[in-house]
Every structure is written in structure tokens, then in C-alpha cells.
């Protein structure tokens, strides 16, 4: 028997296809044509009766009239559904759910792979800003807080009574509790996180393309680079801004001016801030205008490979350089920073985005094979992410050669502390460049789907609409790469802003509102979740005042 359970998988959601439903007719398969694990398997009398009833409804009206379609109680149960072959055989469907379910290990690494982004490059810088000891403490605490808030998002759909929330996402939950304001606020802050990521990508792609091109040029022309201040030896570490002010970024622009003032033709046309950000427009702007991003989705596995290679690179460099630590709890020295610094909100802002997966966790967990293990798998995924951030951040900070270099020299992108002539770092930059080039159109597609879908009800309302949106997004990336190429600051500002709503405020308010409606709200829960809201506000204001 074949009812029509056709549910095409589009944009992460299962929807019924009305057109497909019209094209199939129920039929009965003779027992001798059943193919399965048991050669003697027969069609049950109940299944044959169901087939007769479905045939009856099918003959009552034409296929174009949906008035007399078979009702739900007539449709066969999943164990009695077979897929018909034109060769005259039918294969039994194993399980009634048409979506592919993943085991726990796949779900855990899917969450890990989704969270592992550009923030991993800023972890050593974040630890430097907070201090070594305080930085480790903040990573652990922020991991626990964001895990709890993510847990509240995951459970938010379960707290809504008498409503089928099986296909709901977090914006739908926000709309249920707070109306249009909740829906649009979640949408706006979700767009902030996506556009912030695209801006960071543009800055990093400019950086990686510049260093990759410089490596190739120096190799072809046999040019030796020794002008940057740094250590000697095979595993050279450099300090691009030796006069760096820890409380500001004014020396950044001085370095770029100095770098491009050599007068050489190559340096004139191959500049990290003056030319490269504009070259990327030619490559990436046309890709953003594609109707579908399915082609680029094939390269998402490169993200996992890039992170694995980064972990190998960090391990290798740490072994070669050794550890250089000297504990000064509150006072700075020439080569070391205090263990506790007042700039710690900069790390918490970075971590808010680094641990951010709250806007898509419901979708990811829907595909978990064992739904009863969702909380455990989410916790293990966060543990894996936190350990990865700690591993990279702690090893790079500890292995940074101080003396002769000061820990203040650690860059927001730790790869900038290695010269462009370093072969292993060149491979890392080239891989990350290719990976980000393929992921950037996917991020642009998500921005377009969310914004255009809400404004016009269509993901692609027209070429002009899409082109104007892409110009604005690309323009933001070019401006930041040209005038403020500090990915650490970009990540912390966008992370603190979107995290205020999607990590701290909305999950806490939804939980408190749900408890209040059920009459189960108690003062300990109100105090704790109120503290989370205040923490999100303080995290945002700390980016501007500390």
C-alpha cells in the first residue's frame, strides 16, 4: 500500500507538497511481489482492507478535487507503507519518519562544527585582554551561561500548551509570547550576528589574500622578509605593532602606512587595506546574487578540516616555541600582562558570539535520533567547543615568546603574529581563504532569506532588491576592512549586541513568562533570570566603556 507521505526537504523544514500529492494514487501490491528481509513476508489482511478503502475514496472524485481525499484515519500506518517500483515490486519503508535522523555523535560534532568560526582566531588575544588566569575563568563561566541559555531556547517550544510546535523555530516562540515585537526583535538581532560574521569574513579574507599573495610573490622573486620586529630562528614570531597601545588601536593605521610606503609597485597595488578589500568585490559580489546557495553548501566540510589543521598548527608551534609564562597578578611588566585586567569585557563579548548557536539549535536538535538525549548531547557539544577554545587560546598565549616580545603583541588574529614566509601558516591562510570564500555566499543567502522573506514574502523578490541588499552588506565589509580591520573588536561588538537579545534577554523572559502563565514562578527563578538579563546588558555596555 502506498499513501502519499511525500515531504520535500526545503530550507531545513519538512513541508507537504500539494502538487506531489495529486500525482500519486494508492494501490495494492500482491503478496508475491513483496521484497523485504523476510522472503515469506505477506501483506496483512488489515493492510489489504486499508487498500480497498483508499481505492474507494480514490474513485469517488477526480484527482484534482481535494474535497473527498482519504481522511487521516484511512491512511495506512507507517509499518504498512511500501514504496512501489515500476518493475512490479514494493519495498517496505523502515520507520515512518521521512527525515534522516542522526546519532548523538553526529549531532554533537554538527553543533561543534557550527559554532567553530572566526572567533577561534581571536581567543589568544581575548585571553591577553582579560589576563591569563581571568581569561580561563571567563571562558569556563561564559560557556556555562550560554549553555544554560541555549538549553532554555531548546525547551521553549515544549512549554507552549495545546499548540503543535513541531515545526517551530525560535522566532515563532518569540512571536507567540511577545507578538510582532518578539518576532522582529529576534529577526533583527539574528541579522546583526549574520552581517557581523560577514564583515569579519571580509576583513579576514582581505588579510589571508594579502598574505597568500605576498608569500607567492616573495617565493617567485626570491625575496627575503626580515623587516618586521620579531624573533629569529626557524619558527619566527613577529610583532607587527611594536609600539602597540593596549588601550587603543591607533598604531594599527601607522603600521599599514609604513608597510605600503616602500614605493615598490607590488606594495602599491597589493595592499591589505587600500586595494585587497576592493579586489574581493569582483569575486564575491556576483556570487551573492545567485538564487540558490546549494552549490556552496557542498564545501561546508572545509570548516571542519580548517579547524583540525589549526589545532595541529597550534600544537606544533607550541612544541617548537615552548611555554613562556610569568605570573604578575595585578601589575604589568615589560613582557607580561597581569593575570587580572580591567579589559576582560572584551573577551566576554568575543565569547558571546563564539558560543552563539541559539538561533538554530532547535533545528539542529530536531534531527537527533534520540530526542531524550538532547540535553546531554548539547552539553557535550558545548564542552567540546569550550575545550577547543581553551586549547587554542591557552597554548598560543603561553607559547608566545616573552621575552624578547611582549604579550601585548598578540594580535586579534593570531596568525598575524607569524610572518607571511611561514609555510605552515601559509597553508592555514590559504585553506581558510578558500573556506571563507565558499561560506560567505551562504551567509549572504541566509541574510537574504530572513530579510526578504519577512519584507516581501519571497526569498528572491527581484534582482534589483537582492543587488541593493548585497551592495549594502559588501559595502559594510569593505569599509571595515579599509578603516578598522580589527576582527577582535568587530566580533566583540556584534557578539555582545546580538547576544543581549538572543542569548540573555529573550530566553530568560520567555521562561519567566511561561512560568508565570502556569502559576509556577518563584522568586529564586525570577532573581536568577533577572541577573542573566542584567549580565547581558552589562556585557554590551562593557564593550564601550572598558
UniProtKB/TrEMBL annotation:
Domain Amino acid transporter transmembrane: 107-216, 269-534
Membrane protein topology class: Multi-pass membrane protein
Coiled coil (residue ranges): none
Transmembrane segments: 105-125, 131-151, 184-204, 276-292, 299-323, 343-365, 377-400, 423-443, 463-484, 490-514, 526-545
Main location: membrane
Subcellular location: Late endosome membrane; Lysosome membrane
Pfam families the UniProt entry points to: Aa_trans (PF01490)
GO molecular function (one): L-amino acid transmembrane transporter activity
Name of the protein this chain belongs to: Neutral amino acid transporter 9
Claim: Cytoplasm is one of the keywords in the record: no
This protein's record includes keyword Membrane: yes
Family of the protein in this entry: Belongs to the amino acid/polyamine transporter 2 family. SLC38A9 subfamily.
Keywords: Amino-acid transport, Disulfide bond, Endosome, Glycoprotein, Lysosome, Membrane, Metal-binding, Sodium, Transmembrane, Transmembrane helix, Transport
GO cellular component terms listed in the entry, alphabetical order: late endosome membrane; lysosomal membrane
Catalytic activity as recorded in UniProt: L-glutamine(out) = L-glutamine(in); L-tyrosine(in) = L-tyrosine(out); L-leucine(in) = L-leucine(out); L-asparagine(out) = L-asparagine(in)
Source species of the chain: Sinocyclocheilus grahami (Dianchi golden-line fish)
Amino acid at each position: 500500500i502506498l499513501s502519499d507521505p511525500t515531504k520535500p526537504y526545503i530550507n531545513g523544514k519538512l513541508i507537504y507538497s500539494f502538487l506531489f500529492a495529486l500525482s500519486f494514487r494508492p494501490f495494492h501490491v500482491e503478496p508475491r511481489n513483496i521484497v523485504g528481509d523476510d522472503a515469506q513476508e505477506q501483506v496483512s489482511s488489515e493492510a489489504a482492507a486499508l487498500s480497498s478503502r483508499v481505492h474507494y475514496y480514490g474513485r469517488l472524485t477526480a484527482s484534482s478535487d481535494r474535497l473527498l481525499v482519504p481522511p487521516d484515519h484511512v491512511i495506512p500506518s507507517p509499518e504498512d507503507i511500501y514504496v512501489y517500483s515500476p518493475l512490479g515490486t514494493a519495498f517496505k519503508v523502515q520507520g515512518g519518519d521521512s527525515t534522516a535522523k542522526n546519532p548523538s555523535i553526529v549531532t554533537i560534532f554538527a553543533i561543534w562544527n557550527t559554532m567553530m568560526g572566526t572567533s577561534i582566531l581571536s581567543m589568544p588575544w581575548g585571553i591577553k585582554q582579560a589576563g591569563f588566569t581571568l581569561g580561563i575563568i571567563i571562558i569556563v563561566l561564559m560557556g556555562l551561561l550560554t549553555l544554560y541559555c541555549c538549553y532554555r531556547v531548546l525547551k521553549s517550544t515544549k512549554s507552549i500548551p495545546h499548540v503543535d510546535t513541531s515545526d517551530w523555530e525560535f522566532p515563532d516562540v518569540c512571536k507567540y509570547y511577545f507578538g510582532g515585537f518578539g518576532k522582529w526583535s529576534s529577526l533583527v538581532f539574528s541579522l546583526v550576528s549574520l552581517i557581523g560574521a560577514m564583515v569579519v569574513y571580509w576583513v579576514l579574507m582581505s588579510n589571508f589574500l594579502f598574505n597568500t599573495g605576498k608569500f607567492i610573490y616573495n617565493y617567485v622573486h626570491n625575496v627575503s622578509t626580515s623587516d618586521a620586529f620579531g624573533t629569529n630562528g626557524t619558527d619566527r614570531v613577529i610583532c607587527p605593532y611594536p609600539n602597540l597601545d593596549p588601550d587603543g588601536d591607533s598604531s594599527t593605521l601607522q603600521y599599514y602606512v609604513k608597510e605600503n610606503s616602500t614605493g615598490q609597485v607590488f606594495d602599491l597595488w597589493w595592499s591589505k587595506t587600500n586595494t585587497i578589500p576592493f579586489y574581493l568585490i569582483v569575486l564575491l559580489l556576483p556570487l551573492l546574487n545567485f538564487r540558490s546557495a546549494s552549490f556552496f553548501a557542498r564545501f561546508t566540510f572545509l570548516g571542519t578540516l580548517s579547524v583540525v589543521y589549526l589545532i595541529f598548527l597550534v600544537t606544533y608551534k607550541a612544541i617548537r616555541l615552548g611555554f613562556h609564562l610569568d605570573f604578575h597578578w595585578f601589575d604589568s611588566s615589560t613582557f607580561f600582562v597581569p593575570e587580572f585586567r580591567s579589559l576582560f569585557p572584551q573577551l566576554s563579548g568575543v565569547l558571546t558570539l563564539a558560543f552563539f548557536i541559539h538561533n538554530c539549535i532547535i533545528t539542529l536538535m530536531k534531527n537527533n535520533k534520540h530526542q531524550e538525549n538532547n540535553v546531554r548531547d548539547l552539553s557535550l557539544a558545548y564542552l567540546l567547543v569550550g575545550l577547543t577554545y581553551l586549547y587554542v587560546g591557552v597554548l598560543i598565549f603561553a607559547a608566545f615568546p616573552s621575552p624578547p616580545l611582549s604579550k601585548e603583541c598578540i594580535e586579534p588574529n593570531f596568525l598575524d603574529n607569524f610572518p607571511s614566509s611561514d609555510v605552515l601558516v601559509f597553508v592555514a591562510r590559504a585553506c581558510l581563504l578558500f573556506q571563507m570564500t565558499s561560506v560567505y555566499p551562504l551567509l549572504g543567502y541566509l541574510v537574504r532569506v530572513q530579510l526578504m522573506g519577512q519584507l516581501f514574502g519571497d526569498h528572491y523578490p527581484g534582482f534589483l532588491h537582492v543587488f541593493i541588499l548585497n551592495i549594502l552588506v559588501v559595502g559594510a565589509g569593505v569599509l571595515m576592512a579599509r578603516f578598522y580591520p580589527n576582527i577582535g573588536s568587530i566580533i566583540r561588538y556584534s557578539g555582545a549586541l546580538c547576544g543581549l537579545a538572543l542569548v540573555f534577554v529573550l530566553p530568560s523572559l520567555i521562561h519567566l513568562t511561561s512560568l508565570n502563565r502556569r502559576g509556577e514562578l518563584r522568586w529564586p527563578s525570577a532573581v536568577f533570570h533577572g541577573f542573566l538579563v542584567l549580565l547581558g546588558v552589562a556585557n554590551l555596555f562593557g564593550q564601550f566603556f572598558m
